[in-house]
Amino acid sequence: MAGSGEPTRREGLRTMVAAVVAVPLLGTAGASQARRESPAPHRKPELVPPLDVMSFNIRVPAASDPWAVRRPVMRTLLQRAAPHVIGTQEGQFSQLLNIGADLGPHYDWIGTPGSGNEESTAVFYDVRRLAPVEHDVFRLSDTPTVPGSNTWGAAFPRLVTRVRFRDLLDAGREFHVLNTHLDHRSEYARARAARLMAERIRGLGFSRPVLLTGDFNAVAHAGTAYDTLLRAGLVDTWDTARRRGPAYGTFHGYQGLRPDGDRIDWILATPGVTVRRAWVDTYCANGQYPSDHLPVTASVRLG
């Protein structure tokens, strides 16, 4: 897929739309609105099962921790957790295909192939629960429509994958998922990226819930990027959760768990989202972790 900057789906949808044009996949927005206005009369919101959303930096393949060794542990973790949405970072195309195969036929994914020096921030989803309505990609730069563009001094080009989903178990309720990976080197690049994401999220309006997953390379409650996104109207699901698991630093670098360590992987949401539980998944097998990051999950109700 070298040289391709177009988003990709796992099963036969190898080519997606141009990066910033949102094209309906499963019908028009008007049809979706009609369905939302005529919900099933017997549907009670409290009977809708919660939506489990995960953010996971899966780590690129590396000689020091080969993907062939990590993949079986990743497979077990994801199959055990079975989230409905997974925002992944650093995934190379071959890894994404592997994860799609390991998750099985009930999952699909949307993202870019990650060609050249541009990674894929792919979004996996459970097709039994969710149907994508539209999707696009924008780059975190002054030229967001240009694949591979990098104008803010980041170590690598950075981007955002956005998907609007329809919840098949919640009377067709729609919501947005945005998934990203901010730069690890430049505070300025992170700050500019957060400003652009905040603008895009405000542009979506708040008629539909928004979930933002990512490895932000910045500690929650510290730094410009975090403050900018919360000022844009988002809340941190870890803070708003009714219940939380033990707190760990989400980047461990294979050096062991870090209780109460820095949380640089977040799931943010619009305020109307109710967070039943948030936790960090520490699964490993015989001391082998699937990644140098721990996945973060939030179990939510959209409204």
Major beta sheet, strand line-up: 1-4-5-3-2-14-13-11
Q: Low-confidence spans: pLDDT under 50, at least 5 residues? A: 1-6, 10-45
The CATH architecture classification is 4-Layer Sandwich
- Class from helix and strand fractions: alpha+beta
Can you put this structure into words, describing what you see?
With 303 residues, the protein is of the alpha+beta class. It has a single domain (16-25, 52-301), classed as Endonuclease/exonuclease/phosphatase (Deoxyribonuclease I, Chain A), CATH 3.60.10. It is built from six helices and 14 strands. The strands form two sheets. An eight-stranded mixed beta sheet has the order 1-4-5-3-2-14-13-11. A six-stranded mixed beta sheet has the order 6-7-8-9-12-10. Helix 2 (67-81) packs across helix 3 (93-103) and helix 4 runs parallel beside helix 5. The protein is globular and about 45 Å long. The relative contact order is 0.16. The model is unreliable at 1-6 and 10-45 (pLDDT under 50).
List its salient traits.
alpha+beta, 14 strands, eight-stranded mixed β-sheet, Deoxyribonuclease I, Chain A, six-stranded mixed β-sheet
Task: Give the helix/strand layout.
Blueprint: E1 8-9, H1 29-37, E2 51-57, H2 67-81, E3 85-89, H3 93-103, E4 107-111, E5 123-126, E6 130-139, E7 159-167, E8 174-181, H4 187-204, E9 210-215, H5 224-231, E10 235-236, H6 237-240, E11 243-244, E12 265-269, E13 274-280, E14 296-301
Helix pairs in contact: 2-3, 4-5
